[in-house]
Design brief:
The structure holds two protein chains of two kinds.
Chain A (H helix, E strand, L loop, with lengths): L2 H28 L6 H26 L7 H17 L4 H24 L5 H20 L4 E2 L3 H8 L1 E2 L2 E2 H19 L1 H11 L1 H6 L4 H27 L1 E2 L7 H11 L11 H20 L4 H26 L1
Antiparallel strand pairs in A: 1-4, 2-3
Helix pairs in contact in A: 1-12, 1-13, 2-7, 2-8, 2-10, 2-11, 2-12, 3-4, 3-5, 3-10, 4-5, 4-10, 6-10, 7-8, 8-10, 11-12, 11-13
Chain B lengths: L1 H20 L12 E6 L5 H17 L2 E6 L6 H12 L5 E4 L7 H10 L4 E4 L5 H6 L6 E5 L1 H15 L4 E7 L5 H15 L4 E8 L4 H14 L5 E4 L2 H13 L7 E6 L2 H8 L5 E4 L2 H16 L7 E4 L2 E4 L2 E4 L2
Parallel strand pairs in B: 1-2, 1-3, 3-4, 4-5, 5-11, 6-7, 6-8, 8-9, 9-10
Antiparallel strand pairs in B: 10-12, 12-13
Helix pairs in contact in B: 2-11, 3-4, 6-7, 8-9
The chains are: A mainly alpha, B alpha/beta.
Amino acid sequence: MTPRLLHVQSRRQLGTFAGLIALCLILWAATPHFLTVSNLLNVLEQTAINAVVAVGMTFVIISGGIDLSVGSILALSGIALGSALQAGVPVPVAIALALAVGLACGLVNGVLVTFGRLPPFIATLGMMSVARGAALMLAEGRPISGFDDGFRMLATGRVLMLPAPAITAGLIYAVAHFVLGHTVFGRAAYAIGGNEEAARLSGVAVRYHKTAIYGVAGLMSAAAAVILTARLNSAQPTAGTMYELDAIAATVIGGTSLLGGEGTIMGALIGALIMGVLRNGLNLLDVSSFFQQVVIGVVIIGAVLVDMSLKRHRR
Amino acid sequence: MSRLANVLVVGLAMLGLAAGCNRGSSTESGAAPKVAFVMKTLNHPFFLDMQRGAEEAAGREGIQLVVQAAEREIDVEKQMQIIENLLQTGIRALIVTPSGSREIASAIAKANRGAVPVIVVDTRVDPKAAADNKLQIASFIGSDNYEGGRLAGEYLAKSTGGKARVAILEGIPGHETGDSRLRGFREALQQHPGMTIVASQPANWERDLGFTVFQNMLQAHADIDALFACSDLMALGAVEAIAAAGRSGGIRVVGFDALDDARKMIEAGRMEASVAQSPRDMGRIAVESAARLLRGQAVAAEQKVPIALVTKSGTAGSH
């Protein structure tokens, strides 16, 4: 990333962040229940799952792709986790298995996109159906429930008051922020998304990195599955339905361009927080779920409109 | 600074919209205690009837009732979020129709920790999940779904003369409601050796899936005589599939819920019967029970709402 691009991106991130703060201020004025310690912790806990899925989505979208299969991969990894836990497999091994399942699905996406030359939309649309079907088959359509308290600490645990899902998400964001901003892999993602042909000609191992990027998305879905399964004390084959859209929304609200080549991890975090705060606030204000959907849709469109006007400003 | 202003304008506009839709929860100074009713969904006639019954009772009892539901019925995580969020607003009691009979346990545990009494309606909490989480549930209000399934089975056995090839459309697997109806229906049929179940598949409570799944069943078993659908929406889908196959009137369809659309189909002779629940009574009893709890009075741990079978010739009760 050139220093200039970095500068522009951090400025835009500031804009999104200002949006988040404005939203919080408005909610603070509108309801006394919003700005309390317990409610803010509540929002962090609720946002963690979408935020983690959005990390993978950000990598994919920066590289110029899209991943529609994250919700289904989340369900399949969750079922793998639930089945393993119920079979008495030790918790760390079961989690490793779930992460491996997610990673494997993601890598298959990547191989289909790179070596199979399928458009990402098609490859991941297929995986969305395959993984969902596999999850339903493995679970025979039923949820797998009832895990021991040790495993559930991943959702119910608190460290210095912070809910465990928020801590897990925070760690993942710290690592992802570093990887995207300061490693060869991260630079490759930007380069591929900016101009794939130019990246190839300048020696970036495009197919290798792209495959790995989809692997990261699968891995993040699996990580989200671990949190969700612990939170609900249940692994559901229908879990994660439409989560791909929430993750895409968080990513684009956070300023990542669907055209690829630009975007940040912290933007995705702010985007996920905006969605989490909005849902929470609308619940607190007793806004009907129908109208909530309208509001969220308008926010997505509004955020991208603002973002685009910022871009025009730059030129 | 213009971009900052932009963002602020969008944010303000949204909240302006939201506040416009705010049904007055900000007027919390009043003495009316706030009770939350979290439903499975608000886009199904059954739950809308329940909401009506609940709101009528809330008016009489002087309760400020907040009714919310997730966008999609199967979204157990979203239902949990809604409960967590409402618990932040100082509700005095929580009424819930669980989207998942096991998954709801974590949310009820949170209400318990906040000392908010919980009333469960329609779908029972899985007993094991309740025990594992040491849940305190003040009352369960619901139909006897097992009895409803049994009633449907007995009716079909009688109307087919004890001899029929029967198909079943199930709800979402693992749901206590659907499972109980299914169990009741199957056990009723076991008393009649001439009744054979040739196909039994889930159609996830949905009308369009009811259509597709039953269409496929007819491909595999052209000789189906009767259908039991665990909900009317699925039955209504199946009725259209029967019409599309040109077999209207040739297959006896029994549904569950006695929705208005189903009653019309029964009148028109395209459906045989439907098991009627009383969602409006459920909503009413739930809010009345909450009011009793707030006054420090006791409520029964289990309150059964009567069911009845609706046929063309009238309604026959079971309780």
